[in-house]
TrEMBL record:
InterPro entries: Arginosuc_syn_C, Arginosuc_syn_N, Arginosuc_synth, Arginosuc_synth_CS, Arginosuc_synth_type_1_subfam, AS_cat/multimer_dom_body, Rossmann-like_a/b/a_fold. The keyword NAD does not apply. It catalyses: L-citrulline + L-aspartate + ATP = 2-(N(omega)-L-arginino)succinate + AMP + diphosphate + H(+). The gene is argG. Homotetramer. This is Argininosuccinate synthase. Pathway: Amino-acid biosynthesis; L-arginine biosynthesis; L-arginine from L-ornithine and carbamoyl phosphate: step 2/3.
Amino acid sequence: MVQHRDVKKVVLAYSGGLDTSIILKWLQTEYGAEVVTFTADLGQGEELEPARKKAEMMGVKEIYIDDVREEFCRDFVFPMFRANAVYEGTYLLGTSIARPLISKRLVEIAHETGADAIAHGATGKGNDQVRFELSAYALDPDIKVIAPWREWEFKSRTDLVDFAEKNQILVSKDKRGEAPFSVDANLLHSSSEGKVLEDPNVAPPPYVFQRSVSPEDAPDKATTITIGFAKGDPVSIDGKSMKPHELLAALNDLGRDNGIGRLDLVENRFVGMKSRGIYETPGGTILLVAHRAIESITLDRGAGHLKDELMPRYAELIYNGFWFSPEREMLQAAIDHSQQHVEGTVTLKLYKGNVIVEGRASPKSLYSDELVTFEDDHGAYDQKDAAGFIRLNALRLRTLAKRDVR
């Protein structure tokens, strides 16, 4: 726990919502500290100016509201998708990959403003506290981190509302009761957890889904698109070049309209418990299928299989908060090297929750018509060679079988 007397100025990750507004006031009253607020525009789809006004009303003089959407996609999301990273087979790591960027900016702002500490609103039961703090310490080993949910005495929503009312913090009527579930959102995904979603055997109510229509309600006619790639990253849709965040936003719209990207997952948190979450990653789901498709014709078998072996470890590092670790950077270097010739186009059909590959083409393709044809290959491949290949690979199996017969 950070000693109160050691902290004079704190940079707070601030959303403008009830919890972080209470944290802001709590830091002012309990720590007697000056608070700097940082609000990141990660493409969460919310108006951020109200956060500025709330911070001003609470006496904050240094307010940072940064549009980091392009950096988020370019330096975090796209490198992760080069690896085809999924945690526990299905989760596209939408929350996990945003935390190191937020931590990076918190530390940078602390250095710019001369702050002693940073603070976040993650609870003591979740993964985010780990992600925020591991990232912060990797970037500044001497930074102080304040995690109010691990310190204060509040036990319930009622306690928070009482504190807010005593300190003249505006509480909207819909915040006075328990929220039916909690939501975290950014340009890559939305995540819903808790309350009505805690029983993993009960289907989520329809109102939980915010980023996609139901596959049943999606259009009866398929949408066909072509995604262009260069060095493993998507660069265009239907021939139109786009910036990283613009491209992901466009894929989100296409995925939303076609009921793509819903996931109901029971996952293993880093802190040791299982949790159930409802995730919506429409654009990311499309992108993953497309990237694997372009790799299928441009990536050598050995490199591709090695990537698939490394991927679970890479995904786990991101999930657990080790984005700035040397092992993640080592894996990233290998992954990026593999993407030098991953370029071309992938044509996809989007239909009622499905992403269907219809075609892929590349000037760097390793696919050879001459080798795979059932027609005359003009000597490109001598089928007789396969006999020796099989005999050599069968040698140990035949040796084992003879021993077993004896």
